[in-house]
Amino acid sequence: AVVSTQSTGMARRPSTKRGAFLNEIRLLLHAFSSDKDPKIANCVQEYMFYYLSNVLLEAKNHARYKGKVKTDDILYVIRDDHVKLRRAKELLKCNEELKTARKAFDVDDENKKSTLR
């Protein structure tokens, strides 16, 4: 079911996880000293869910294989927003570096265990 919001004119789906990111949003608002009204965090969360739902829906529509959204599909959707695209690529690169570091760490642990036996 899609619910229409009068103030913004945006359609949104009701969230199944109310408050899923509310604590993190409150902390961010506090860091920017904007936490005077608790309704602000709820508003930011609603907008975030609306935006992410739209991006994922568009990515799903552009997906090469129907029903499977891949990282490239999301990058395609945000291709015109250069700031978001650059940040997404930076986070993906960081994720790959973390995977490589974890893999190396796991190999080192296995070598140490085999030498201790």
Briefly, what is this?
The protein is mainly alpha-helical and 117 residues long. The protein contains four helices and two strands, in the order ββαααα.
Features:
3% strand; mainly alpha; two-stranded antiparallel ribbon; disordered N terminus; single chain; 117 residues; 4 helices
Q: Overview of this structure, please?
A:
It is built from four helices and two strands, in the order ββαααα. It is mainly α. Strands 1-2 form a two-stranded antiparallel ribbon. α2 packs across α3. The radius of gyration is 20 Å and the shape is extended. The model is unreliable at 1-10 (pLDDT under 50).
Order of helices and strands: EEHHHH
Distance between the termini: 59 Å
Give the uncertain stretches in residue-range form.
1-10
Number of strands: 2
How are the SSEs placed, and which strands pair?
Layout: E1 3-4, E2 11-12, H1 22-31, H2 39-62, H3 71-77, H4 82-116
Antiparallel strand pairs: 1-2
